[in-house]
Write a structure and sequence with these properties.
Length: 126
């Protein structure tokens, strides 16, 4: 049986190191430092889980089309790994905007930073 994989998209220093949680859950973690790199990697490997930080696009260059840093990645996820479970990490001040991502792909869990390892472990156990 192939090992289940998890994309950990780490775009800032606030992203917690959850490698031990992933290992206990029997997941192979693939660390990626940008959504662009994650999209490229999707073409080679379809993850079972994705853990990524959410950053709201307050004044982005997309004329209001994109909600956040994750939009384009989630559209690609629909194509390459539609059954992947997405866990979003978000700062408390931006929590109100995260639910808009459910219009792209249903989110499996949303965890407000600072996140406890137990919160992510629970989301992975669902």
């Amino acid at each position: 049986m192939p090992r289940r994989t998890l994309f950990s998209i780490i775009e800032s220093p606030t992203h917690p190191d959850l490698a031990e949680v992933y290992a206990r859950a029997g997941l192979e973690e693939i660390r990626l430092t940008s959504t662009r790199k994650a999209i490229a990697h999707l073409k080679e490997c379809a993850p079972d889980y994705v853990v990524a930080e959410f950053f709201y696009g307050y004044g982005n260059n997309y004329a209001g089309v994109n909600i956040s840093n994750l939009d384009v990645f989630l559209f690609s996820l629909q194509k390459y790994a539609p059954s992947a479970r997405v866990i979003v990490l978000v700062d408390k001040s931006e929590r109100e905007y995260v639910d808009k991502l459910n219009d792209i792909i249903p989110l499996h869990a949303v965890c407000v930073l600072p996140v406890l390892p137990e919160q992510v472990a629970a989301a992975l156990a669902d």
